[in-house]
Write a structure and sequence with these properties.
280 residues, 20% strand, disordered N terminus, alpha+beta, T-fold, 8-stranded antiparallel β-sheet, 43% helix
Length: 280
Amino acid sequence: MTLVSRLSTLLIVLLLVGCSQEKVQVIAGSIYGTTYSIQFTENVDKEEVHKLIKTELDRIDMVFSTYKDDSEINKFNDCLSDPAYPSKSFCLKLASKEFITLFERAETIEIISMGAFTPRPLVTGGQTYDFSAIGKGYAVDKIGEVLAKNGVSNYFIDIGGELSVNGTKFDESWTWGVNNPFDLNSGAYRAFKAPETGISVATSGEYRNPGHIWGEGPQDAVSVTIIDDNTADADAWATAMYVLGVEKGLEIAEKEGLAVFFIKNDGKSINSSEWSKIYP
């Protein structure tokens, strides 16, 4: 009887140990006027990883924030407005490689989207740049790099609704969803299982913050979700597709091989053929 009791106790202890080892670690905070949440399954020092993540988020803020006077993008904009400097190309020569890379990526998407996505908001007096419609996605990608360098390959990164998901949640798929834009207090409009090989997702719409997207379009979609190779491009394309509208957006999506999911104003959804390849 004593042996049975000890064996039962040992079994309970082992089960508890197994459960504790399968606890998802969560890091959360505020940045860029929104919130972030990073979940991962590896048994690493959460506080140390959080410090590294916060350092990277703050570093990116000093590159792309238009709210910090000494950020790189504000210095670039100051250069553009200074008559002593001859051109945009000259000002770019003073910029970091990181800034130039994202600048070129933003301008490429602007061209392909026929101006539906633009890093230049409409302002009076000169030309300024603002990467807020691609910056959050870029930050998600950079945090993914931080996690990978520190031995974390099974993660779910969310910065203000822009996502990067990789690996599994203890041998089960991570699940992500598209918000119901008609009722934010309800469940997801649609939920999906993330492939183990990874997925980068961004959603755009004005149902949370009306009027924050630049550009005038048909406004016949209330929410647009993009899956791309990286979250920065997904972020930019989600904005572009929202401005383009369903018909023109799908036309460009088919031409460029983009995975896009529209929730239309009438509550129905429609997606590109590339999206159907990922989620049949």
